Structures are given as C-alpha cells and as structure tokens.
C-alpha cells in the first residue's frame, strides 16, 4: 500500500508536502481552494439544486390553485352553481275556491304569475310563497323549485303555483313571494289579494 506524502500544486505543478498550506514555489493557498470548492455539507440545505427545484414547483402549484379558487368564488365561473342570474315575475292573481269532501269543506288558494325574465339554469332556485291575513298573521306557506313552477311549454300563460289547502276557512289579504338561490333571497314580491278572486269570500 502506497501512502501519499505529497500533492501537486495546481498553479505551478511542483510537488509539495501533503500537509502544506501554501506552495513554497509560487505561494498557492491550498486551503482557500478547498473552501471555494462546493461541499456536500454546503449543498445540503433547502437551496440545493434539487430542493430549490421542488420548492419552485410547489410555489407554482399553490399559486395556480389560488387563482382557480378565486375564479370559482368570484361568482363569474362558467359552471359555478352559486352564480345568481336576474329573474323577473309579475303576479297576476291569487285565486281561491272550496269543495266538499267526506263531509268536510276544503279551502284552496293558489298564486298565478308571468315570469318575464328567467335564468339560463334553474338549478338551485326556489320560490317561497307565504299567505297572510289582514292582521299580518301567516296562514300558510309553500316552497317549490323554480323548475317545477315554470315550463316553457306553457310560457304564454301564467304559471300556477303555491297551492295552499286548509279545512279552516281562511281570510287571505296578501302574499309575499321570495325567490331564493343557494339560501340567498334574490327577489322579493308582495301582492295584495283581490277578494273578488276568492270564490269562498263572496
């Protein structure tokens, strides 16, 4: 086994003792050369070539996810089911009639309306209709989806909805109709009932 006792100076090529700090011929500093060379210890941190690449990829992924999330929550995403579109309706009548069944009289109320502006997608829209007497006491309420109420096949005629049936003769005065989307009220209407349209109030 040969033990190396000398090293060659990279500057002048002279053989110098293995433990020499400087080259006796040209003054080359071997220690400065070793400090300048990259070591495994110096490159073992987060900013080593391999790790900084992974960090940059993670930053790009997080930034991209943030952009997609902001678009989705902004209310303008193409398929975002929470996007609210304008809707308009005109209530034309609240009608009422009664009929006898099994020795009882049943009283029925219903609301009629034209929808003059509708969303392109009915998903998530509900219509909440509440009947009140002249004291503001709630008589009854019906909640239905907009898709069940409106049909393009019958768009030339008022849609009939909010059927309220009771065995106790009501004395309705007005209604409120709330159109909601994803739990948020987007339209609110109040309609004063014409008593002549309620057959059992004659």
Descriptive report:
This protein is 18% helix and 39% strand. It has 202 residues and is an alpha+beta fold. It has a four-stranded antiparallel sheet with strand order 6-5-8-9. It has a three-stranded antiparallel sheet with strand order 3-4-7, with no helix packed on it. The longest helix is centred in the N-terminal third of the chain and has 25 residues, at 49-73. It is rod-shaped. Residues 36-44 and 73-80 have low confidence and may be disordered.
Q: Kindly name the structural category.
A: alpha+beta
Radius of gyration of CA atoms, rounded to a whole number = 41 Å
CATH class of the largest domain: Mainly Beta
CATH topology of the largest domain: Immunoglobulin-like
Return residue spans where pLDDT drops below 50 for at least 5 consecutive residues. 36-44, 73-80
What share of the residues does DSSP label as strand, in percent? 35-45%
What would the principal axes of the Cα set say about the shape?
rod-shaped
Overall structural domain count: 2
* Main sheet attributes: strand count, strand direction, barrel closure: 4 strands, antiparallel
Question: Architecture of the largest domain in CATH?
Answer: Sandwich
End-to-end separation in angstroms reads 124 Å
In quaternary terms, these chains amount to single chain
Number of helices: 3
């Amino acid at each position: 086994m040969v033990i190396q006792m000398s090293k060659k100076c990279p500057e002048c090529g002279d053989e110098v003792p293995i433990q020499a700090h400087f080259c006796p011929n040209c003054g080359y500093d071997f220690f400065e050369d070793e400090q300048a060379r990259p070591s495994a210890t110096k490159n073992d941190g987060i900013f080593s070539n391999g790790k900084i690449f992974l960090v940059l990829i993670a930053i790009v992924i997080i930034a991209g996810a943030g952009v997609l999330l902001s678009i989705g929550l902004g209310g303008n995403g193409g398929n975002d089911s929470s996007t609210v579109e304008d809707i308009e309706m005109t209530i034309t009548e609240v009608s009422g009639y009664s009929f006898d069944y099994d020795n009882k009289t049943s009283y029925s109320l219903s609301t009629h309306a034209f929808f003059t502006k509708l969303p392109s997608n009915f998903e998530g829209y509900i219509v909440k209709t509440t009947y009140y007497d002249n004291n503001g006491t709630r008589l009854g309420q019906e909640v239905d989806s907009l898709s069940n109420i409106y049909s393009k096949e019958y768009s030339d005629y008022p849609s009939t909805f909010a059927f309220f049936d009771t065995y106790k003769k009501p004395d309705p005065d007005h209604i409120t109709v709330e159109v909601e989307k994803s739990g948020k009220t987007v339209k609110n209407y109040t309609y004063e009932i014409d008593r002549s349209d309620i057959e059992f109030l004659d």
